[in-house]
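Hi R.,

As promised on Friday, here is the backbone we talked about, encoded as structure tokens. Could you run it through your design pipeline when you get a chance and send me back a sequence?
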């Protein structure tokens, strides 16, 4: 393969050509809004014994309100499962795409005559992660009792995997810059942009969730959506700069 072939592979596996899935935070929080609204609705819903001088119209109104609350709860749960599926799926897709991108980059360097890239090739293999079946984990989350453990594991592993993955990526970028005799803190690398995804304490977050009767879990969910979004944006900027610099270098 020629340098042009490796550059083509690099472009094809880049976030510019194959964007990572950035989930809008406001949309992802909608399931929690609906769920909390349904809880409030249930608390405010009067029972038949609390109705004064009830007549058929009161019972019909109460039934309609109960159905509305139940519908809100079910829609919130369905949306939650959908976004849980997306969170797991985008993890798999990003890890696979990132591996292809850095593999193409290292092979391009070798083809260009940079011989000291063996360590980088080994580092690229650290990006490989076993994919998680999103459908399976969504189904497991529906099983009574076991579902809570399944969701806890998914939350924990999503944060842990993205953190460890982003640490390896930053190390790779620094290694590539040094192999080229360049500073990793200057264009086109600017590695400080690729900050590792924060490592969040599962134990602390679980404790706060229990102490707040589940309310804190909404913030936990928020971090699972937001943290990778920021990581993906940094990826796209970095990969765009790097590809442009390689094209200019080859053109010269």
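Update: got your reply. Pasting your designed sequence below so it's all in one thread:
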């Amino acid at each position: 393969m020629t340098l042009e072939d490796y550059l083509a592979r690099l472009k094809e596996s880049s976030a510019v050509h194959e964007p990572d899935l950035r989930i809008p935070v406001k949309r992802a929080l909608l399931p929690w809004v609906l769920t909390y609204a349904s809880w409030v609705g249930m608390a405010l819903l009067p029972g038949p014994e609390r109705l004064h001088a009830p007549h058929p119209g009161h019972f019909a109104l109460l039934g309609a309100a109960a159905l509305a609350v139940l519908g809100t709860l079910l829609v919130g749960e369905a949306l939650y499962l959908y976004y849980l599926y997306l969170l797991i799926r985008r993890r798999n897709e990003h890890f696979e795409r990132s591996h292809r991108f850095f593999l193409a980059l290292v092979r391009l360097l070798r083809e260009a005559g940079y011989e000291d890239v063996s360590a980088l090739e080994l580092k690229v293999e650290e990006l490989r992660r076993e994919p998680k079946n999103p459908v399976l984990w969504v189904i497991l989350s529906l099983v009574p009792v076991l579902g809570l453990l399944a969701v806890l594991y998914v939350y924990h592993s999503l944060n842990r995997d993205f953190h460890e993955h982003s640490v390896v990526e930053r190390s790779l970028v620094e290694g590539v810059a040094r192999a080229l005799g360049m500073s990793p803190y200057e264009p086109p690398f600017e590695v400080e942009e690729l900050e590792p995804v924060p490592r969040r304490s599962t134990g602390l977050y679980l404790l706060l969730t229990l102490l707040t009767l589940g309310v804190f879990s909404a913030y936990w969910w928020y971090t699972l959506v937001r943290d990778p979004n920021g990581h993906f944006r940094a990826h796209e900027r970095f990969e765009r700069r790097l590809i442009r610099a390689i094209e200019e270098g080859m053109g010269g």
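One thing I noticed while checking it: Residues 1 and 30 are 48 Å apart (CA to CA).

Thanks again,
M.
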